[in-house]
Design brief:
about 190 residues, alpha+beta, duf1285 like fold, duf1285 protein fold, 6-stranded mixed beta sheet, 3 helices, about 45% strand, elongated, DUF1285, DUF1285_N
Length: about 190
Amino acid sequence: MSESGKANDLLAQIPKGEKKGLPPVHLWNPDFCGDIDMRIARDGTWYYLGTPIGRKPMVKLFSTIIRRDGDDYFLITPVEKVGIRVDDAPFVALTLQVEGEGERQVLRFMSNVDDEIVAGEEHPIRVMLDKDTAEPAPYLRVRGNLDALIHRNVFYQMVELAVPRDQDGECWLGVWSSGVFFPIGRLPA
């Protein structure tokens, strides 16, 4: 079967129904059918056969059936599981809405596929530092073990909101959301 035939076949297998919400991909365990030439770039652009997928509804549909097992990413339906490549994270947090302030502050993010994520216990923020450049790479948990890379402009907004806090004997700069403090950088002693 051709690569485009595989993608169309995969789309046809996504269960349709009247229920809202995401498909239960964590419950599906079909046979692995191989890799397809699909890639999600660091900026959130989805590519198929080297060409950007320009139809946002298609990208949004594919984004509902992505699953991560270990370090590998798959598009999965009840009867088929295909491997895809993800350069960094499968989603990008593009906007930030701030409600309240201090410990009662709520940070509401919107992803590149229109998922709304409120940072908190179930959706933590973490910042990784590049081992070579020490440049921060901030992430937000979207669902399961899938993250969104927080866009640089949104991260700058978070830095503007950051407050110092002593934690485990160290002073951190971080943000509050939904009653949880998320460190974004250690302050010098």
